[in-house]
Specification:
The chain is an alpha+beta fold. It is built from 12 helices and 4 strands, in the order αβαβαββααααααααα. The chain folds into 2 domains: 99 residues, Glutaredoxin, CATH 3.40.30.10; 121 residues, Glutathione S-transferase Yfyf (Class Pi), Chain A, domain 2, CATH 1.20.1050. The protein is globular, with a radius of gyration of 19 Å. This is Glutathione S-transferase.
């Protein structure tokens, strides 16, 4: 029998919900940021009605894992305001792009979406590099130090230089004479690439400190972070007890907020 997440019966719900922005959302994931961080940030910047569904400690494998189509989270449940339609989505990238399209974070046309997706891919690659080579191995100080040295020799400086350049060259910023960009990759509004970058800045700074990433040294990247933090709906989300608890757990598990 086809899995519930891939059932043709979901097509009706998709058709009803895909263009709506007033749905209610449940983000099913553990009590830290990681693979659900971008999803929660998209919902926050969009001002969506959402909550985190965090499995009780020790219950995921026994009670929930078998129900997920690939045995992993995050999972997203979207429900119409009247409760009559529900859409289930698995896998972080699929969830992020679905929500980004719904809330207008993939540009104004196909070409802008193509550009945004390239920036997203680069940022996702750097995030995974940091997680695998630095954060996950933090209990092995010798290995972490060796990996950090390699990251600082090439991957991080190259990524910084490329993204700082592209942010500064955003045509919308150049047209207004903004030499350090306008806080966005494309145009003058938030995109999925902005959301990825805003979360990634703090991750990178755990590795580099102020030596490579700061308001003075990478002003274009810093503007993206500031733009996200200035969003009223993002401010509201970050002020909630839920966000603060998730951030604290993230620090305990990964070593950064």
């Amino acid at each position: 029998m086809v899995h519930a997440y891939f059932s043709p019966a979901q097509a009706e719900s998709y058709n009803h919900l895909a263009s709506r922005t007033d749905s209610k959302f449940e983000v099913h994931y553990f009590g830290f940021h990681a693979l659900a961080g971008t999803t929660r940030s998209i919902l926050a910047v969009a001002g969506a009605d959402f909550k985190s569904a965090i499995p009780a400690e020790g219950t995921w494998a026994a009670e929930h894992k078998a129900k997920a189509p690939f045995g992993y989270m995050p999972l997203l449940r979207e429900t119409s305001p009247d409760g009559k339609h529900t859409l289930l989505i698995s896998e972080s990238e699929a969830i992020e792009r679905y929500l980004a399209r719904k809330f207008g974070l993939l540009g104004k046309n196909g070409y802008e979406e193509l550009i945004i997706n390239q920036f997203v891919s680069s940022n996702s690659g750097m995030a995974m590099n940091l997680v695998q080579k630095f954060f996950i191995v933090r209990d092995n100080a010798e290995l972490q130090a060796a990996n950090k040295a390699k990251l600082l020799e090439g991957p991080i400086p190259s990524w910084i230089a490329a993204h700082e350049k592209h942010l500064r060259e955003n045509p919308a910023a150049v047209a207004k004479g903004l030499k350090d960009g306008n806080g966005h990759y494309v145009g003058e509004t938030f995109s999925l690439a902005d959301v990825k970058m805003a979360g990634l800045v703090d991750m990178v700074r755990v590795v580099t400190g102020d030596d490579m990433v700061s308001k003075e040294k990478t002003p274009a990247m810093w503007k993206v972070k500031e733009a996200m933090e200035a969003s009223p709906s993002v401010k509201a989300w970050k002020a909630t007890p839920e966000f603060k608890e998730i951030s604290e757990r993230n620090f305990q598990f990964m070593g950064f907020y």
